[in-house]
Amino acid sequence: MLTLYSYWRSSAAYRVRIALGLKGLAYRQVPVHLVKDGGQQHAADYQSLNPQELVPLLVDGDARIAQSLAILEYLDETHPQPGLLPRDALQRAQVRALSLHIACDIHPLNNLRVLQYLSGPLGVADEAKSAWIRHWVETGLRAVEKGVAHWTGPLSLGERPGYFEACLIPQLYNARRFDCDLSGCPRLLAIAARCESLEAFQQAAPEVQPDAQ
Do the record's keywords include Chloroplast (predicted)? Predict the structure, then answer.
C-alpha cells in the first residue's frame, strides 16, 4: 500500500490527498507535525527519509517521491486511469503552467517556513505579515483567474477535475484562512464550488485528517 507522510494543514500534502482520492487509491497516512517539537520534519528519522525536510513524501515500495507535483506526475504515470491531465499537449502544458503558478509562485510566499522567518529573524509584525500574505495570494490568484478564462468546460478536464484543481483548492483554502479578497476570482470560486462537493475533495480536506487540530 502507498504511504503518505502528511500534515493536515499542508497545502502541498492536501494536493496529493486530492489526487489519491480522484484516482481511488488506498493509502496509509503518517502525520508529520510541522510545528510540534520544533517541527517533526526536522527530526533525524524523517530527514533520513526526506532530506528536504518537507511534506508530503510518498512511499511506494522502495520508492520515495518528494514534492507534491512530482508525486502527482508519478501517480498519473503509474496509475493512468482516471487521468489527471488533458490528453492534448497544449492543454496539458496550460494546465501545468497554471498549477506551477499556484505551487511555485503563490504558495511558497504563504508557506509556514517563510512566515516563520518573517516573524522570527526578520521581526515582521503580525499585521505586516498578514498584508504580505494577502498581497501575494490575491495577486497570484487574479492571474490564475485570467488563465482559466478561455476554458470551454467548467473544469480542467471538462466536467471532471484533475491536476489543476488538486492545486487550486488547497490554495483557496489558504486564501480563505488568511481572509484574502477573492471577489476578483469568480471563475475560481465556481470551480471550487463544483469540486468541494465531491468525495475526493471532502476526504482530503484538512479538518477530516487524522492529525487535524
Answer: no
Measure the CA–CA gap between 45 and 27, rounded to whole angstroms: 21
Amino acid at position 207, single letter: E
User: Would you state the cell numbers that stand for residue 176, as one nine-digit string?
Assistant: 480563505
Query: Cβ neighbours of residue 108 under 8 Å, at least 6 residues apart?
Result: 114
Q: Residue 143 has which C-alpha cell?
A: 492571474
State residue 57 phi and psi, 5-degree precision: -135, 130
pLDDT digits (tens, 9 = 90+) for 153-189: 999 999 999 999 999 999 999 999 999 999 999 999 9
DSSP-derived secondary structure for the chain: -EEEEE-TT-HHHHHHHHHHHHHT--EEEEE--SSGGG-GGGSHHHHHH-TT--S-EEEETTEEEESHHHHHHHHHHHS-SS-SS-SSHHHHHHHHHHHHIIIIIIGGGG-HHHHHHHHTTT---HHHHHHHHHHHHHHHHHHHHHHTTT-SSSBTBBTB--HHHHHHHHHHHHHHHTT---TT-HHHHHHHHHHTTSHHHHHHSGGGSTT--
User: pLDDT digit string (tens) for 1-31?
Assistant: 999 999 999 999 999 999 999 999 999 999 9
C-alpha cell at 112: 509556514
